[in-house]
Every structure is written in C-alpha cells, then in structure tokens.
Amino acid sequence: MRILTKVLVLASALALSSGAEAQTLQQNNEAMFREMQQARGLSNGEMQKIRQIFAGSSVIGQGNPAVTRRPLTREQLTAKLGKDPKSFYRNSQFERICGEKWMAPLYDPATQSASDATVCADMFEYPNVPGMYPVTWVKASEAAQLCWAEGKRMGDAHEWEGASHGALTPPDYFFGRSVQAARAAHNAKYQSSARYSIGAQWRSGVCATGSTKNASCNGGSFTGCGSNTYPAGSFPACKSPLGVYDLDGNAAEHMNLPLAPDQMASRGSRTLGVTEMKGSWFIWDTVRAHTHWSRWRAPYWHGTRVLAGNSHHNYHLGFRCFKDVR
Fold this sequence. Notes:
Elements: H1 2-17, H2 25-40, H3 44-55, H4 74-81, H5 85-88, H6 92-98, E1 103-106, E2 119-122, H7 140-149, E3 153-154, H8 157-165, H9 179-190, E4 252-257, E5 274-278, E6 317-318, E7 321-324
Parallel strand pairs: 4-6
Antiparallel strand pairs: 1-2, 2-7, 3-7, 4-5
C-alpha cells in the first residue's frame, strides 16, 4: 500500500511539474502560482499575499477542473504561434515604459506618444502570462486586492475603455447622478463613435469567442459551469489599437466605476466605487448576450461597491490589473 501511495504521489508531482492540468482546484492554483512567479518575476512577499487572497475562497482559480472543457490546449497554442507564447508576446518598447513584461502603455495617439503614458494595462487577463488560462470565479473585491498585492491596481472604467477603443481620453463619469443615469448619459454621448477593440465592425472568430457553455450550466453554479476559456493570447489579431489583448472574448472583466472623484483608482483611491463588468466572453460567436462596444457601460448587473464582501463572481468573469508609471 505504501509503495502504491508513493507511486501516486510521484505521478501527481510529475504531472504538476510538466504543466499538465492538475486534478483539483488547489493543485491547479499551486501550479499557476509557480508559473506566474517564474514568468513575471514576482517576489516571495507578493506571492504570499496572493496565496492568502486565494486561500479565502473555495472557488477562485482558472475554473472548476471537474467541469471545465478547454477549446484549445497550451500545446496547441504553441504550435499555432510557432513559438512559446511568452516569447511571442514580448514587447521591448512596452517593457521600457511599463517596467515589466506584458503590459501596454495607455495614451491618446491624437496628442501623445507611448512614452507619454502615465498608466499601463496588463496585456492579458490575470494572471497576465501568455499561454495561461484566465482566473475566474473572482469577486471584484478579490480582484482589487490581488492587483494591490503586486503593486498594481484595479482599473477605472474609462481606462479599460481607452485601452479597448484605442485612445485614453480624460475621465467622463457624470458624477452626481444615479448609477444608472450616469451610465445612460455616458452611453448616449459615445454611441456615435462606437467601435470594438478589434475594429469598427464586430467579426466572429477574431477573438476567443468560439468556445461553448456546458450543458450542465444552469444558473451559473460552480459545479455545473466550466470556465471554458482559451489560453491567453490564443488570437493574436484580438488586439486593441494600443496593444492590449483579449479585451473581447475569454473572460469578461471587473472594473471600478467611481461615483465621485475620491473613488477613482487612477487617483489613488483605496475605497473605490461600484462594480462595472467589461467586455465579452468565451461564447460570443454563438451567444451575443449584450452590447459590448469599447466605451459602453453596462447596466448595474449584480451591482455592489467594489470592495463589498459579497461582490459578484462567476464562471466567465475575470479581471486585469493596471499600473501607474509616473
């Protein structure tokens, strides 16, 4: 019996070290932690904070392994790109400006150049490593804490919108109005210039939107709904004009919608505003569930304050981090 136990333990260790998908959420998370630390150079202190946040949840990770069905494997992505995704997506100019790998500077090309950027966005959804699957089942409060854990922050709605549209312009929040009235005023203002991260017209097949929803996914349960996402960077053409990937497709994304100037993450707020869900997700080629152009602000779905303990999470909702660079 002891020999059999040792064989099983060794087999499990080999599976993890080879990058094969582990059998439990906790094992998957541990493999993810090791890879993201090695790939992005995170410190042990940063990783300790990240592990503590994950430890507070029974669901946060890259999807429930029991029901998640990947439309594309990491090995298939490497073959598709012709090289390791981590190397394929390196950008030396962006790294000089942002100070680390896989971040893109945000600016307004009409009046600025990339070197004028004061903020950078993760090029991919968390954990922001090309070839890795996005983290889902994460609450908005956990997303904010995870960004802070490594010296970054959650993005304000206008920053995500600028990254997607291709121009980071001054914030426009209609402070003083109700959440819904402010959203409606914003959408009316920008409707005439609506575009997607990938261009003026939506095109199926360009982004990570060709996956499927589990037949067992009824009501959004963890046991029934797989996070059937693609590896980050599976679609090189799914890139905004500022070089940010997967803003459409893969996972939808938490952002901060400030209701007053002192709730703006971009101004250093640690109280933050209310939740905003951005982008589209992995079944969009067959189920266009709602509008999703770049500067569109969604209805107040599952709305709470960002840092509320009961902020929303589900199988197709993730996030990306932003970083101030000046």
